[in-house]
Specification:
globular; 9 helices; mainly alpha; 2 domains; 3% strand
C-alpha cells in the first residue's frame, strides 16, 4: 500500500462519516470533506450520502497532489504525512506556508538556500529547498532533521489553533482535541 493510500485511509477512518456540528464553521462534512469542497469537486448529492470513494479522490487530488507530497515523501515520509494532515485540517495553503516559513527560518539568512516566497504554493523551489534542508542537515542525523522539521511545523500549527480559538470562542470546544490529536501525538502513522 502506498503512503498516499495509507494516509488517506487513516484520515477517512478518523473522520468517521457524516457530521453536522452547528459549532463547526466548516458545516456539514462526510469523511472529513466539507460540503463546500465536495461541491467544488463535483459532488452534488446530499452530504450524508456522499460515498467514501469521492472523499478518497478529493484527498488525493486536492490535498496530496496539490502539496506535491509524492516529492516530499521522497525526502521524508514523516514530513509528507504531517503536511497531509495539516493540509486537510487547515487547508493546503496553510500547510504550504508552514513549510516555507520553516525552511526560511532554517536557511541561515539565505546562505544555505534562497529564501522562499511564503505563498503556500508548494512548487519546485519549495521542494528544492526541502531537498537542500535534508542534505545540509544530514550531518546531524536523518532522525534529527525530520524531528526538527516536524517540531517547526507542529509549533506553527499549534500557534494557529490558539489564534483560531481566540478569534472565535466557539472554537475553544475543539482546541484541546486539536492539540491532543494533531500537535502532541502524530495524527497519522506510517
Amino acid at each position: 500500500m502506498s503512503l498516499k493510500t495509507k494516509i488517506i485511509d487513516q484520515v477517512i477512518g478518523r473522520e468517521k462519516g457524516y457530521v453536522n456540528d452547528p459549532l463547526d464553521l466548516g458545516g456539514e462534512t462526510n469523511w472529513g470533506v466539507t460540503e463546500g469542497v465536495a461541491r467544488a469537486y463535483g459532488y452534488h448529492g446530499p452530504m450524508k450520502d456522499m460515498p467514501r470513494h469521492v472523499a478518497e479522490a478529493v484527498y488525493a487530488d486536492l490535498y496530496w497532489n496539490c502539496l506535491r507530497l509524492d516529492d516530499v515523501e521522497a525526502i521524508s515520509p514523516e514530513i509528507a504525512a504531517e503536511l497531509a494532515d495539516t493540509g486537510i485540517n487547515m487547508g493546503v495553503g496553510m500547510a504550504g506556508r508552514f513549510l516555507q516559513r520553516a525552511l526560511n527560518a532554517f536557511n541561515d539568512r539565505g546562505r544555505l538556500w534562497p529564501d522562499l516566497v511564503v505563498d503556500g504554493l508548494v512548487g519546485p523551489r519549495t521542494i528544492g529547498a526541502l531537498h537542500e534542508y535534508a542534505r545540509r542537515r544530514a550531518d546531524q542525523g536523518r532522525r534529527m532533521m525530520i524531528d526538527v522539521m516536524l517540531a517547526a511545523l507542529n509549533a506553527q500549527q499549534g500557534h494557529r489553533y490558539i489564534d483560531i480559538s481566540e478569534e472565535r470562542q466557539e472554537n475553544q470546544r475543539f482546541t484541546f482535541g486539536w492539540f491532543a490529536h494533531r500537535v502532541v501525538t502524530p495524527a497519522l502513522s506510517l
